[in-house]
């Protein structure tokens, strides 16, 4: 399937919409493959119906809210655009549904996962900050849905890390995180321009682990060990790098990543479980407050793509282009 527009022929590079489309579709293919392999090869323990129904719930919610918003603003719903654009519009909801199904575990119950998918999509429409006259969603959708369910229902947990290699053995256990690491790095390096964010997050995580080891007596190796697991790699490459809810300037990306790491360190020290997901919400809320303040003072802005491409050496996807996962490379994760 191709996009329904033509790039400028004199630029020699794909336009922002094409990069966004490519990032969305590659991530959709990646998370689809991961879901299929997880349930057939790796050892995912959720019911087979979980990802299917989660996607249906997310997409239906997206269609409903887009219909209402389009009606209220007297514009054509985005799902009625040409086929390629309509598919790209629905892909973030599809990705978010699969991300919630992959990361949450509610035993035999399906509805907590469906609720997370629905809440994630709703957050895109209900929680926004106006920047330079444009309302932008500021919370990573799938991450926010997951956190909401974890807070409302303490008996729901995150999928255990061992399920990413439960049916493998020996050296093969290292294959899933390595594959995710390589594919995620390529995706973020070439399409989303989020490598500075990843470096800020990974470096900040290592620093907080070392500080906790020095100041609190926690075994430093144990504090660093989560960095080797598939859950950390997924979170790093596909959740915090959500283009719509993370900064574009290289410096701001590093600060955002370090903020997530600092929040995680505090949460873990306070013995709060699922710190990765709560830390990302905290960082997104702090960024939203900052954007609102700067916008109120007339300073809030979204960097020009060309300028940012020159700074990062990548071709970033336009802000607000996609929606969170395992948010994701394209609103993912």
From TrEMBL:
Keywords: Membrane, Transmembrane, Transmembrane helix. The chain crosses the membrane at residues 86-104, 110-127, 139-158, 170-188, 217-240. Residues 304-333 are annotated as: Disordered. Residues 319-333 have a biased composition (Low complexity). This is Enediyne biosynthesis protein UnbU. It comes from Streptomyces griseochromogenes.
């Amino acid at each position: 399937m191709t996009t329904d527009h033509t790039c400028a022929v004199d630029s020699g590079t794909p336009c922002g919409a094409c990069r966004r489309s490519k990032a969305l579709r590659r991530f959709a293919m990646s998370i689809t493959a991961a879901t299929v392999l997880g349930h057939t090869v790796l050892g995912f323990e959720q019911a087979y119906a979980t990802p299917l129904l989660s996607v249906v719930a997310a997409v239906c919610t997206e269609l409903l809210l887009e219909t209402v918003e389009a009606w209220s603003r007297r514009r054509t719903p985005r799902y009625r655009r040409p086929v390629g654009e309509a598919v790209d519009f629905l892909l973030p909801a599809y990705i978010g549904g699969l991300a919630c199904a992959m990361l949450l575990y509610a035993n035999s119950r399906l509805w907590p996962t469906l609720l997370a998918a629905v809440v994630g999509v709703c957050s895109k429409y209900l929680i926004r900050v106006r920047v330079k006259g444009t309302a932008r969603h500021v919370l990573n959708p799938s991450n926010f849905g997951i956190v909401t369910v974890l807070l409302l229902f303490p008996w729901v947990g995150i999928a255990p890390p061992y399920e990413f290699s439960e049916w493998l053995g020996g050296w093969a256990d290292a294959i899933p995180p390595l594959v995710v690491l390589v594919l995620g790095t390529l995706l973020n390096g070439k399409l989303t321009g989020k490598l500075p964010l990843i470096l800020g997050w990974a470096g900040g995580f290592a620093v907080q682990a070392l500080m906790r080891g020095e100041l609190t007596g926690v075994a430093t190796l144990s504090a660093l060990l989560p960095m080797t697991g598939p859950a950390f790699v997924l979170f790093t490459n596909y959740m915090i790098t959500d283009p719509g809810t993370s900064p574009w300037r290289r410096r701001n990306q590093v600060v955002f990543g370090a903020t997530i790491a600092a929040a995680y360190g505090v949460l873990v020290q306070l013995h709060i479980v699922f710190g990765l997901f709560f830390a990302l919400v905290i960082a997104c809320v702090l960024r939203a407050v900052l954007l609102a303040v700067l916008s109120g003072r007339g300073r809030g802005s979204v960097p020009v793509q060309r300028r940012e491409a020159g700074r990062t050496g990548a071709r970033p996807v336009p802000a607000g282009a996609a929606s969170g996962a395992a948010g994701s490379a394209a609103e993912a994760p």
